[in-house]
Every structure is written in structure tokens, then in C-alpha cells.
Amino acid sequence: ERGLEQAERAYDIRPDDLQSINDLVVTLFNLGRVEESLGWAKRAIKLGPEGARTNVMVANCYEKLHRIDEALEANALAQAANPGVKYLEFQQAKLLARKGENEQARDILSKVSREAGQDADLKKKILSELGRVLDKLGQYDEAYRAFAQSGIEASRDPAVKKFKLDYRPGLINAYIEGLTAERLGKWKPEDL
Fold this sequence. Notes:
Elements: H1 2-13, H2 18-30, H3 34-45, H4 55-64, H5 68-81, H6 86-98, H7 102-114, H8 120-136, H9 140-155, H10 158-178, H11 181-186
Helix pairs in contact: 1-2, 2-3, 3-4, 4-5, 5-6, 6-7, 6-8, 7-8, 8-9
């Protein structure tokens, strides 16, 4: 809620500023106030070419409201304003899959998954969605490969690597610190 107060204050100071409106859009969306977010996003779009990039949020809002056809339209406008953005192709495929157009979703996801230049997180999401779509189509071996590749991509994420490095020694140290002579004396093989 505090973030919303700040976004509203920024808007009060600069009501025609695209950034202040976009801050309201994102904040309201993240608070689950999707209808309000959608209204502000539509307002941002009216501000001109730069506002057209807000169609990404319009598509997100429509998807959250289960208005898939409108989400697809907004996503198409976002793609026109932001050509070559792989996330938007991923979003298009995800929306098509929600409509049951799994073959078309598969084709888009297959194409995008083979393209270079994506960060590990997006690639993981693309492959995971591809796995779900392939599973729906009954292409189980291909789905398994997509899910396995998604896991490989997830393991490349620096945050995951750092977590593994931080977590294991911490777990081992906590276990060792918990060992006392009293606990060792009470241990029995059936405790395993």
C-alpha cells in the first residue's frame, strides 16, 4: 500500500507523465487491483507512441481477468510497438494455449526456444510452457525433453547457483551445531 501512495503522489505532481502513470499501472496490478490497473494502462496508451509500450500491461491485465481474446489483441499491439521482444512472443503463445490453440502455441514456443540471446529465466519459462503445450498435445517424449531443458536453464540462473552455495554449508553447519554429547548419546539406529 505504501508503494501505491508514492505512485499516487508522483502522479499528482506530474499527471501527464508516462512514467508516473506506468508506476500506478504496475503497482495496482501487483496489489491485485487489476481493473484499476487496466484503466490506467489504457490512459497511458493515449499518451502516444511511448505509451503504446504499455500494451504489455494491458495484455497482462486482460489475461488476469480471463479476457484472452482482448489480451491477444493488446499483446499484438505491444509486439508492433516493441518488435523482436521474445517475452511478447512467449506471452502470445501462452495466451493461445489458454484458448486451446495448442498447435499454434507449440509452433511459436518451438521457434522462440531455439533463438539465441535470451536470459536463462525467460528461456526456462519458454521451455516450461512448451512442455505443458506438448503434454496437452500428447507429445510426451518431446514434453519431457522440454521440461528437462527448462530445469537445465533454471540451474544456470546465478541466483540459483548462489542459493545452492549458501544453502548447503548453512544446512551442514546447522546440523553440526545441533550435535551435542547428549544428543549423540541418545541416538539409535531406528532414528534414521
